[in-house]
Amino acid sequence: MDFTYSPKDLAFRDELRGWLAANLPQGWGETVFLPEDEDENAMFRLDWERKLYKGGWNGIAWPKDYGGRGATLVEQAIFAEEMARAKAPEGLNIIGRNLVATTLLHHGSDAQKARFLPKIISGEEVWCQGFSEPNAGSDLAAVRCQAVRDGDHFVVNGQKIWTSFAQYSQWCILLARTDPSAPKHKGISFLLVDMKTPGITIRPLRQISGECEFNETFFDDVRVPVENLVGELNGGWRIAMTTLAYERGPEDALGRQLVFRQELDQLLATAAKLQRGNRSAIEDGLLRQKLAKSLVGIEIMRLNCLRAFSKSLKGAPRGAEASMNKLYWSHVMQDMFDTAMEVLGPLAPLTAGDAHAVDGGRFQLGFLRSKAFTIYSGSSEIQRNIIAERVLGLPK
Amino acid sequence: MDFTYSPKDLAFRDELRGWLAANLPQGWGETVFLPEDEDENAMFRLDWERKLYKGGWNGIAWPKDYGGRGATLVEQAIFAEEMARAKAPEGLNIIGRNLVATTLLHHGSDAQKARFLPKIISGEEVWCQGFSEPNAGSDLAAVRCQAVRDGDHFVVNGQKIWTSFAQYSQWCILLARTDPSAPKHKGISFLLVDMKTPGITIRPLRQISGECEFNETFFDDVRVPVENLVGELNGGWRIAMTTLAYERGPEDALGRQLVFRQELDQLLATAAKLQRGNRSAIEDGLLRQKLAKSLVGIEIMRLNCLRAFSKSLKGAPRGAEASMNKLYWSHVMQDMFDTAMEVLGPLAPLTAGDAHAVDGGRFQLGFLRSKAFTIYSGSSEIQRNIIAERVLGLPK
Amino acid sequence: MDFDFNQEQYMFQDTVRDLLASALTMEHLRSGTPAELWGQLAETGVFALLTREEDGGLGLGYTDLALIFEEFGRALVPAPIAAAIVAGGAIARFGTPEQRAQLLPGHGEGALRLSSAFAETVATVPAAMTLTARPTDAGWTVTGSKILVPDAAAADKLLVALRFGDDLGLALVEPSRAGVTLREQDTLDLTARYHEVIFDHVTLTAGDIVGGRPDPAAVVACFDAAAAVAALQMTGMAARTLDEAVTYVGQRKQFDRVIGSFQAIKHRCADMAVAVDACRSAAYYAAWALDEAAPDERARAVSMAKSWCGDNARFTCNQAIQLHGGIGFTWELGLHLFLRRIKCEEASFGDADWHRERVIGATLRSMELAG
Amino acid sequence: MDFDFNQEQYMFQDTVRDLLASALTMEHLRSGTPAELWGQLAETGVFALLTREEDGGLGLGYTDLALIFEEFGRALVPAPIAAAIVAGGAIARFGTPEQRAQLLPGHGEGALRLSSAFAETVATVPAAMTLTARPTDAGWTVTGSKILVPDAAAADKLLVALRFGDDLGLALVEPSRAGVTLREQDTLDLTARYHEVIFDHVTLTAGDIVGGRPDPAAVVACFDAAAAVAALQMTGMAARTLDEAVTYVGQRKQFDRVIGSFQAIKHRCADMAVAVDACRSAAYYAAWALDEAAPDERARAVSMAKSWCGDNARFTCNQAIQLHGGIGFTWELGLHLFLRRIKCEEASFGDADWHRERVIGATLRSMELAG
C-alpha cells in the first residue's frame, strides 16, 4: 500500500496546478463564482472547456491521435482531484467528451471519427444524450422513439426525456426503434442527430430545486442521414450498453468526493459560526455525531474510490463496483444534506434570496438537489439489482 | 375520544387486581420471579394456568357454556393489561387457549368440542402447534408431512418445526398432506394428534439466547384416529388460515406493550444508576436521544393498539392492522435492545452469571431474544407483503 | 375507552376534504393561495371552533380539529391558516374578556386575520426566545425581530411570544403599529408568504398582552398547540405522499410489469404505511392531550408527536419521491411542495431532537430518576 | 498510489484462511478453542510479524496483518489470539531492549502467551481509565481491576494499561504475581474465556513498565491498534455473515422459488454488500495508518473504522440472521456466535459514538475551528 504519487505524477499535478492558477479568474472560488443565471452559467462552462482545450487539458484521456494526452489512469485521477480542489467548473460537453467520444472510438466509422471527434474535444460541438423516454427509464430497452428508413434518411418520431443541455447542444446521440417487430433489445439503433434538424422541440424540465438542467426533447419527422447510424442497424442496444459502461470510473469519483468534502467542510465552518441558543451549533453533541457520520461516510467514499482505482491500475476489468460506489455515496450525501438542514436549525427554511439565509442558501439548494442523487444515473433500486445479480450472483 | 374505562369495567379490573394480589406469590416481580430452569418454569406456568382456571380467570373470552366468562373486548384488554402490570406469568397453554379453542368452536364437531374444550380451559391438557416444517415456513402451504388413510386411522409421517412446548403437550394440532396429487393448498387436512401416540419424537431446538422454547417434532408411522380430523378431508388449509387469523388481537397487544414499557422503565432506572466515566449513563445526551426514541416508539405502540382496539370495539372486522402492528413493534423493540446494549457500555458483554452483569443479564437475554421478534409469527418480509397487498392494494 | 373519532368529527373531515379538493388544486398551490379559501374555510367553522360558546364560538377542541389539520396537510393548506387558528385558540383560552370580544367574532368569520410570531433566528422554542419587552412608564417597549411569520402582511393582528423581564408572555400587535416593519422572506415553502417582523421600540400596553399579564403557561400551551398542529399537518402530508406513491407504482410499468408488483417497491410502501399509521396515533393523541391532559402529559404527548411525525413525514415524502423515479424530482409533479413544507414544519416549534430530549426529561422526572 | 495489497499479502491471507478452514470448524467454536491452534498460527508467523528483524521477527506491519485479522473475524478466531498479537506489537514497538529480548522470541513461537488488559467496568478508552499505580519506595503498587481480559488464565504475561500518577502507561504483569487474582467471567462471546484481573496491592517496578517509564503515547498507540484490529475482525465477520446469507438465500426455496430471487431479499443483500465493501475500505486504511500515519491521522483513521465497522457488522449480521428466517435464530446454525462476538467488539476499545466524537474533534482541530 502506498498513498503517494510518483515524481512523474507529481510533476503532472504541478503543471496542472500552475495552469489552473494562471487560467482561472482571479479570486475564483473565493470571491468569484459561476454565474447564477443558467444560460450564462452554461456559456461560461463552454468557454472554460474551450480554454481547457487550448491549454491541452481537455479530453486528457483521449488518444494523442485525436488531440488528447493519452493520460494514464493516475493522471486522470490527479486531473479530477485538482479540478475539484481548484473548484474549477466542469466543462459543458460532458456527454460529448465521455460517452460520445468513447462510443465513436469503439463503434464509429472512420468518417464518423474524423467528422465528430475533433469538434468534441475542441468544444465546438456540444452533445446531449437521447436515451431515456417517459416510459423507458430504468427499463431503457422499452424505447419507443421510432426511426423509419426513407431513402437515404431515417425519419425519427418520438420523445426523449432527461436530455441534459439539449438547449446548448449541436448534436444528440439517440436510441431509436428501427424494428418494432423484433424482441425489444434487438430492434434498436444508435443514431447521431444534428440538433438543428427541423422537427426538434426542446422543453426545459424544471427540477425540484428550481433549476432546469434537464429537458424533454420531441422529435417530429426529424430526418437523419443514414450515414449517422453508428454500428449496425438494430445493433444499438449493445452499443448503448457499452456506452453506459464508459460512465465515469473511480478516477472521476475521486474528484466528486473532493467536491462533497468541500461541501462538508463548509458545513463544519458554518456550524462553528452559527449560534444555537447560547452556544455554537458545532458544540451540540447530537449535531457533532451527525456531522461525524457524514465525515466518516465521505472519507470512506474516497477510500472506496481509491480501492477500486487501485484495482483498475492493475488492469482489473471494471465491474459492478461502480454500482456499489454510486449506491454508497448517493445515500451518504443525502444524509449529509439532511444533517445540514438540522445544523441550520431555525434558519433552515430560509433560502437564497433572504437576508438571514445561511451561506447564500447553498445547503437548501444542495438538499433539494440531493433528492435526485438516488434517482439519476441508475436509481438505487437498479443499482441494487445490479449488485445482487452481478456481484453476489443472485438469480434474476 | 375517551381514554377512560366505564365504572363496570373498572369494577372488573378491581376484581382482577384483587384476585391477582391474593393469588400471586408474595413479593412477586420484586423478590420472587419465574423459575430459571426451563422445565420448572413451564410447570410453574402450568400450575398458574390451573390456578387462573379455578379463580375463573382462564379463557375469559370463551363463551360461558364452555367455562369462559364471555368477556367483552374491553374486559379482555383490561385482563391483558392487568396481567402485564402485575408481571403475572403467562399460562402455558397459549396454543390451546387461543388457537385450538377458537378453531374447534368454529370448525370442530360437537364430540370434539365436548372432548377437548373443557380440558383446555382447565389446564389439564396442553397443546402444541404442528404447522411449520423445515421447508414450509413463510410458505406454509408447502407442508409435506403426510397422513395416509389406513382403515379408521391416518398414518402420519413427517417432520414439524417450531412446535413450542411440544415437550409439555398432551395434544397437537397438525397440518398434514392427505392428497399429494392436489394443488398444494387443496390437499391438506387438519388433525388432532395425541402426543402420547407411539412414533412421535421431540427434539428441543435451542435458540440463540440459549433457551429451548421450540422443538422439532418427528412423526414416524403415527396413527391418528379418523375422528380426530377437523372439518373436511383436504379442507385443512382454510381452517388453518382462520386459525392463524385468531392470533391475538390488539387487546392482547396492549398487555405486550406494557411488558415492553416495563422493560424500558427498567432500562431507564439502570441508566440512571450506571456510571459512565464521571457521570451516570442517563446524563449522556446521545443515550438520552436513543432512549427517547424507544420511549416514543413504545408509547406509540400503545396508541396504535388502542386505535385498532377502538375500531374493533365498534365492530370493524379485523384486517391487516395486526400486520402493521407486528411489523412496527418488532423493529421498535429490536432497536430498544440495541440501545440497551449501548447503555450498558463496557459491561455489555457480561451475561447473567457474571458478578458485574447488570440487572442479572436481562438486557443481554432480551437482546438475543429480540432477534426472533422480526422472524416469528410471520417474518417482517411476510408482514410487508400482507400490508402491501391487503392494505395498499398493490398487485401480488 | 375510545381512541377514535365520532361520526360528527368524520363528517366534518369529509366536508373540509371536499372543500379543499375543489378549492385548492396543485395549480393554486403553485400560483399562491386563492383569495376565497380563507372565507370558504370560515364558513365550515374552523376559525370559530376553538372559541367558547359564550364568546360566540363552537366551544370545541383540538380533538375536533385533528382530522381537519390532517386534511390541511394532505391538501397543503398554506401555513397562515393554521397559524390563525392556533392564535385564535390561544386568545380563546387565555385572552381577557375584552380581547375575546374584540377579536374572536371577526376571527371566526374569517374577516379578521390573525397570525402568530414564534420563531427567532436562534430559537424556535419558548425557553430559548430572546425577544424582550422592556418596562417603560407607559408599559413596555420591544426591539428585535421574529422570523417566518406566516403572511404577516395580510394579518390584522399578530400573536407574538416574547419575554417580559423573566416571564414569557403573548402579545397582540397589529403589523401597522408604529415601529413595526415587515420584510417578506424567501423560504423553502412555496405555498405561502412569510415575513420577518422587525420591532423597533414598539410600545406595548397591558391591553396588548393576552390575559392582561405575562403568562408563561399560556406561551407553552400555545407552543404545544402549534407543535401538535405541525405534527397533524405532517401526518396529512405523509399520508398524501404515501397515496401518491401507491397510485403511481400501481400504474407505472417498467420491464413489462407494474412497478408496484416488484417486491422491493411493495415493501417500501408497506414501511411507509406503517410510518403513516403511527403518525396518526401520535398526532391524534397529541390533539387530545391539548384538550384534556395536564401540562406535563400534554408536553410529553406533543413532543412524541412532533418528533415522530417529523422524522416519518420526511421518510415517507422522500420515499414517495424516490418511488416516482425521474418524474419524482421534477418541479411539475409537485411532490417537492410537500418536501419543502415538511422541512419547514420540521424546523419549526422545536426540532425532533429537542422534542425527544423533552420526552425523556419529562419521563425521568415522572419516574423520579435523576438526570 | 496503490490502495491494494501485494501478492505476498494475498498469499499470506490464503495460507491463514486455509489453515483456519481446517483448524477451526463450527464444532471447535462451540466446544472451545482447539489447543493446537495457537501453535499452528505461530508457524505461519503471525506472532513474529510485528517484531523487528533485529529482535528476531519479520519486521512487518499491521498492513501485512490486515487481511489476516479479517480472516480471524471470518473464522471467529478466539479473542486471545488477537489480544496477544496486539500486546506483542506494543512490546515490539515500545519495549526496552531487555523486554523485547525476553518476551518476543517466545511470543513469536507461540510458546509464551501474552494477553492484554484494557477494559474497566466504567471505561474502555484510555482517557477514562481509572486503574492507578501509586508510587512506593520500591516502585509502584496497584489495586483495582480490569475486566474482559482474553483468557488471562492461559497467559504468561498481561499487558496492562493503567495510570502512573497523571500519566498513562503500559505494564507487563504475570497473572501469577502476588496480589493478582483471576476470576473467569460470563460473557456473550462463547468462543473464548475472559477474566477479570483483580489487583490487590500488586507491586510494579520500572522493569515491568513497557519502555521503562509511563508513556501515554504508547497507550494510545496500543489502544488504536486494538481498535483497528477490532474493526478488521468485524469486517471479516460482516463478510462472512454476508456470504452465509447469500449462500442460504441462493438455495432456500419458498413459494416454489429460490428466495434469493425475491427482490426485497436481493436488495437487502446488495445493501449488505455495500456495507461490507465500505468496512474493508475503512479497516484497511486504519491498518495502514497504524504503520504509516502520524498520531492524529492514525487516530482519525482508526476511529472512522471502528465506528463504521461496528455499525455495519451489526447491520450485516442482523440481516443475515433475518434472511435465514426461523433457522437464523437457532443455536445450531451458529450465526449467533457472530452476533455475540460483534456485540463484544462493538463495546470494546471505545464504542461508535465515542469514536465519532473523536473523528469530529480531530477534524475540527485540523481545520482550526472552535468546538
UniProtKB/TrEMBL annotation, chains A, B:
Q: Does the keyword Oxidoreductase apply?
A: yes
Q: Name one GO cellular component term.
A: plasma membrane
The residues covered by the Acyl-CoA oxidase/dehydrogenase middle domain are 128-222
User: Start and end of every Acyl-CoA dehydrogenase/oxidase N-terminal domain?
Assistant: 11-124
This protein's UniProt keywords: FAD, Flavoprotein, Oxidoreductase
Cofactor(s) needed, names only, are: FAD
Q: State one molecular function term (GO).
A: flavin adenine dinucleotide binding
Q: Member of which family? A: Belongs to the acyl-CoA dehydrogenase family.
Q: What is this protein called?
A: Alkylation response protein AidB-like acyl-CoA dehydrogenase
Q: Which organism is it from?
A: Chelatococcus asaccharovorans
UniProtKB/TrEMBL annotation, chains C, D:
Query: Which top-rank group of organisms is this from?
Result: Bacteria
Q: Where is the Acyl-CoA dehydrogenase/oxidase C-terminal domain?
A: 220-359
Domain Acyl-CoA dehydrogenase/oxidase N-terminal intervals: 7-108
Family matches, as Pfam families: Acyl-CoA_dh_1, Acyl-CoA_dh_N
As cofactor, the record names: FAD
**Which molecular-function annotations from GO does this UniProt entry contain?**
acyl-CoA dehydrogenase activity; flavin adenine dinucleotide binding
Q: Which UniProt keywords apply?
A: FAD, Flavoprotein, Oxidoreductase
Q: Which family does it belong to?
A: Belongs to the acyl-CoA dehydrogenase family.
Q: What is this protein called?
A: Alkylation response protein AidB-like acyl-CoA dehydrogenase
